[in-house]
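My current task is to audit a protein record that another person submitted. Thanks in advance; the entry in question is below:
***
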Amino acid sequence: MTDFHSTYSNSNPVSSIPKQGITLGAHPGELMAALPAMMGFTPSQCLVIIGIVPDTQEPHRLRIGPVIRLDLENWALREAIGAFTEALAEWPAPQALVYGIHPRQEGVEDFINDAALLLEEDDVAVISTWWIEAISEGARWIDLETLEVGAVSSIDDNPLSNFTALHGALSLSDREELEQWMDVRPDAPVLRPRRFENSLYDREECAKLLADLLTVTEATAKIHRGDVRLESALADRSILRAICCIARDERLSTYLIALGLGDRAPIVREFLVEAARHSRSFMRRRLLLILSAVLSNNDEGMPAFYALREVARQSGDQWCDSPVDRVNRLIVDHMWRRHMSGTAKNSNIALAVNGVYWAANWETACLLDHEGPFASNMESVDPDQESDSEFRCRHRALLELLPVAIDWRPITD
């Protein structure tokens, strides 16, 4: 199995790399100790390859690029490394670090050598190769080029771990725990959002959808202020149901990506994954796609990959001919290409901006557009009727919430 993570190639290098950097050559054990922070879990019995690329703002400096994890299986090497080197192609003179993690050196050394040869064939210079006994403090490592021996540094106290902790990034024990984190909960009641109606053509659905946006936006803001505990909100099925209804709407689904920007990401991430655990079929697929975007924007590239892969690997007969799933197919193809090319974050920020645009201009774009899709069922409606007044009142409340509910820095920086 190949896990492809391009968090740092998808991020703003200024905001994503800590000011106190890790010196690649002088302290190999520090970068090894940072692997769990980079990947969201502690890798074991596998290969990990880290791309090293020039910093876009200071080209004389190097930074971490794509990261890939491979199971110890010969058949997977060439295809995985091909995808990895393709992601590095946009940078001049890309380099790589190759780590083999296994309790026994002989259990992984051949895989390390094969991977290094394939990288060199694709014009990626291998800085060095290492065998690591385990990713735990004090575990032994050997530089296979120089035969230097050392120990893995503290996992809890290094710049990348401190940085990801500050951003509320996931920190799981292993890959299995990461997969279980987003698994369906078969013993829990399934979330059943109301009957789908296209809000672009249905006045009543517009009003309900606006109420959903207020519910989720207010809940996120209250948790962020500390007025409500996240655990309590996650147990509120009305909030999770509102998230599902927003997520399936073609125009407003990306509003959830905007709501999950910056320091709100851990809140919205937990909302989305909890809703996905209680959802099935096309609804679960849509939630996982939005979750992947939120994770990627928070520099959690490996969990983002897993959420995206969960959707991409589903067989054709699992997909529905529903309006939501037809859009899901388009989204997953687009997001997969962006992730593999290392451009997911820029794309996801654009989606977030689109979601805010629709939410902010909703009244103008939909309810007041008498020449648009609503024309047929709006001509006989008095614009001053009670329902319109209620909608405008709710929409004003949403507009008042937007400046404080969304972390605008990732958009404006």
Observations:
- The longest strand covers residues 46-54.
